[in-house]
Design a protein that fits this description.
Elements (H helix, E strand, L loop, with lengths): L3 E8 L19 H11 L4 E5 H10 L3 H6 L1 H9 L2 E4 L11 E4 L3 H10 L5 E4 L2 H9 L5 E7 L19 E8 L5 E7 L7
Parallel strand pairs: 1-5, 1-6, 2-3, 2-5, 3-4
Antiparallel strand pairs: 6-8, 7-8
Length: 191
């Protein structure tokens, strides 16, 4: 069975974007962090997005600015297979993108059961919440940023039930980030 992983930047107070949807606060890049991100991006995985994150990513990674700022990551982001869940998006035109407009939980169960590379959700708070409630996420990778936003978008707000997690690993970076990897405790199937 394919694994489903979340990778998100998060503020100290638990937000993945500020109240305006801005994520520029997460840009504390240095050589050590850039090397870590490039290493992560080089792995085999299928990216999973909701509409808002997909449109943001598709508006940046195929641009000359992205190639100038982070060439290795931009190259990989453009090459990798992408899955987009949206009930309002009519077309997903970023290369190697497949659009799903139906039942998120049912489709994800089907995709996890198929052979292939693991899947990684980036951003997409609503998708993370729904799949957390369905107990379909196997690992949460969180890059904790040394900033408090006060308000914003949380991937864990309004969960139907708590999600018990076990720390798998932690790594600190000179720029102040702490990378945390958590696995869901217990069954991956809904109770």
């Amino acid at each position: 069975m394919r694994r489903l992983v979340v990778f998100n930047m998060m503020s100290l107070d638990g937000f993945i974007a500020d109240s305006r949807g801005d994520m520029s606060w997460a840009r504390r890049h240095d050589e050590e962090w850039n090397s870590f991100v490039a290493g992560n991006a080089s792995g085999e995985a299928v990216l999973v997005f909701g509409r808002v994150t997909y449109e943001m990513m598709a508006g940046y990674w195929p641009t000359p600015l992205a190639m100038e700022n982070a060439p290795a990551v931009a190259k990989r982001m453009n090459e990798v297979e992408k899955i987009v869940f949206s009930k309002t998006l009519e077309k997903a035109s970023w290369q190697r993108s497949t659009l799903f407009g139906g039942d998120l939980v049912g489709e994800m169960k089907r995709l996890k059961a198929e052979p292939g590379a693991d899947m990684v959700i980036l951003g997409s708070a609503s998708i993370v919440r729904q799949l957390t409630d369905a107990r379909l996420i196997d690992e949460y990778q969180i890059a904790l940023s040394p900033i408090a936003l006060g308000s914003g978008k949380s991937m864990f707000s309004q969960l139907a039930d708590r999600a018990n997690l076990t720390l798998g690993s932690a790594r600190t970076f000179r720029n102040g980030y702490v990378f945390l990897s958590y696995q869901r405790t217990g069954s991956s199937e809904p109770a």
